[in-house]
Task: structure prediction
Amino acid sequence: MQPDLFAEDRSRLELDPGAFLLGGFALEEAAALLEGIEVVQAASPFRQMETPGGRSMSVAMTNCGPAGWTTSRRGYRYTDRDPETGALWPAMPKAFAEVARRAAAEAGYAAFEPDACLVNRYEPGARLSLHQDRDEVDKSAPIVSLSLGLPAVFLWGGQTRRERPRRLMLHHGDAVVWGGPSRLTFHGIDILASGDHAVTGPLRYNLTLRKAR
Ligand code: SIN
Ligand code: FE2
Result:
């Protein structure tokens, strides 16, 4: 296979300067990514974290890699250890970093080396309200998001919370990369519609790879 030719065939939508939706980018690796999620969740199970305001999140989360993102009454932070198990977050499966590196390069970000991967699991009815990813020390690196399973409506907003977000469908195998001038763009996921995906059944997963430190 000629990787460059194949890359040109993929749908590539520039959402804003420095932000790209890469349709189907991770389709070939989807099975490996899902296997990786199984390994990660065996060590650090999915859990519904608490917001600083005391609400339980509808999205269930876990992490892998040296740094893991958590939210609790004490705020948002990256930790070395899973606060539920007391152990280090599980290692990042090779396929996660490898696909993320290629997606970042495709979007113009060379040499992306993620040290954190937040794994989100959505059941129908779950949502992620508009937010910025801004707990990372190193904001020169992009965010790479990989979607698996049920389709979802991605909300792509602006640099302030007030801008009305665009609505884009994210399907199994899609990647979104945002960095540079778009690094702090507000984004979220609308209430997940129920469905039955051929591979994940009633679930959607999302991997968000970051350079946190
Ligand atoms: C996130 O913003 O952390 C996740 C976005 C998504 O689930 O696609
Ligand atoms: Fe996010």
Observations:
- The pocket of fe (ii) ion (ligand 2) is lined by residues 131, 133, 187, 208 (CB under 6 Å).
- The mean pLDDT is 95.
- The two ends are 36 Å apart (CA to CA).
- The helical segments are 3-9, 30-43, 94-106.
